[in-house]
UniProtKB/TrEMBL annotation:
Residues 27-333 form the Beta-lactamase-related domain. Keywords: Hydrolase. InterPro entries: Beta-lactam-related, Beta-lactam/transpept-like, Diverse_Enzym_Activities. GO terms for molecular function: hydrolase activity. Gene3D superfamilies: DD-peptidase/beta-lactamase superfamily. Pfam families: Beta-lactamase (PF00144). It comes from Streptomyces poriferorum. Its EC number is 3.1.1.103. The keyword Disulfide bond does not apply. This is Serine hydrolase. The lineage of its organism: Bacteria, Bacillati, Actinomycetota, Actinomycetes, Kitasatosporales.
Length: 347
């Protein structure tokens, strides 16, 4: 770390220490770096309010940061010819061939312009995987396809199913084969086993489950789907996300062909209400969750549990922030402002 960077690192730690003291989360981990690796990283706090101290080996529920990593799986399948961006839902998923979503394309699901609704709590009335997937079919469109960005977890549930149907493999196996194994991500995956759960950071004291959730996906729809889904369910350590981020800024082995990554990360919806690329959030001119400290070509994603990964390809840098801001409850207590402050220090 440069001498100029040292005060900024101290400020970032101070912000995150203060967030812990104010009860925004029990713990936080962070990393900033470039293609050669991190130049500022650390952790503060505990795995739960009454839990052990973080030690850097902690396992975090990534929540919707799952979406762009599943997007990397989808784009790797595009690279291999197993999928095309203009393939439709109905082409791959016979159960939805008569649904309102049948003609929606893989690209529209990835950039959230399919017209599918957003975070519908299907789990409340559909407690089994089969009933939830059936209920997904007739969901009404919120807009005509291609006319509006509507953030849709339901669209990514469909993407996960499409990837599985196109390959005959489970999404968890595809994740391992196409993302984790190539990058050496040994602590990233769905449904942690006993050893992983022992290192997991607590999320919500969940009223639906009647207990504090630890090492099990926080998202309730993902729970009903068995913990493996296109929209949520991945767990990872800070070190694994650093490896992924370094890859995305040009370090190490690439996951995708260069032109495929360019297509994936290029803004597609600047004529609409939000800037989106394929599976990634773009840098919105107003209201970006990471403030205005990243370039206009930057992209990333946030997660409901208090996680985020942001990439600035022009500057060749990344930022990772991992917290359990839903512990012990999902009430917003000032985390959004803290996240913006963290990302704009030294920008």
């Amino acid at each position: 770390m440069s001498a100029a960077g040292a005060p900024q690192a101290a400020d970032r730690r101070g912000i995150l220490d203060d967030g812990r003291a104010r009860g925004l989360y029990s713990g936080a981990a962070w990393s900033l770096g470039d293609a050669s690796g991190p130049y500022d990283r650390g952790w503060t706090g505990t795995r739960a309010l009454d839990g052990p101290a973080l030690d850097g080996q902690d396992l975090w529920d990534l929540a919707s940061v799952t979406k762009p990593i599943v997007g990397l799986v989808v784009m790797a399948l595009v690279d291999r010819g197993a999928l095309r961006l203009d393939d439709t839902v109905g082409h791959h998923l016979a159960r939805y061939s008569d649904s309102p979503h049948a003609a929606r394309t893989v690209a529209q699901l990835l950039d959230h312009t399919s017209g599918l609704p957003g975070g519908v709590p299907l789990y409340r009335d559909h407690p089994t995987r089969e009933s939830l997937l059936t209920a997904l079919g007739p969901l009404p469109r919120t807009a005509e396809p291609g006319t509006h960005v509507t953030y849709s977890s339901q669209g990514f549930i469909l993407l996960g199913l499409i990837a599985e149907q196109a390959t005959g493999q489970g999404l968890d196996d595809l994740m391992n084969d196409l993302v984790c194994a190539p990058l050496g991500l040994t602590d990233t995956g769905f449904r942690p086993g006993p050893a992983g759960r022992a290192r997991a950071v607590a999320t919500e004291a969940c009223p639906w489950r009647g207990r504090t959730v630890v090492g099990e996906v926080h998202d309730e729809n993902a729970v009903v789907l068995g913990g493996v889904a296109g929209h949520a369910g991945l767990f990872a350590t800070l070190a694994d996300l650093e490896r992924l981020a370094c890859c995305l800024v040009g370090g190490g082995r690439p996951l995708l062909r260069p032109d495929t990554l360019t297509v994936m990360t290029a803004p597609r919806t600047d004529h609409l209400n939000l800037r989106r690329s394929l599976a990634w959030q773009g840098q919105d001119p107003v209201g970006s969750p990471v403030g205005d400290g990243f370039g206009q070509a930057s992209y990333g994603h946030t997660g409901f549990t208090g996680t985020s990964l942001w990439i600035d390809p022009e500057a060749g840098r990344y930022a990772i922030l991992l917290t359990n801001r839903v512990h012990p409850s999902r009430e917003e207590r000032g985390f959004a402002e803290l996240r913006r402050d963290f990302h704009t220090i030294g920008a």
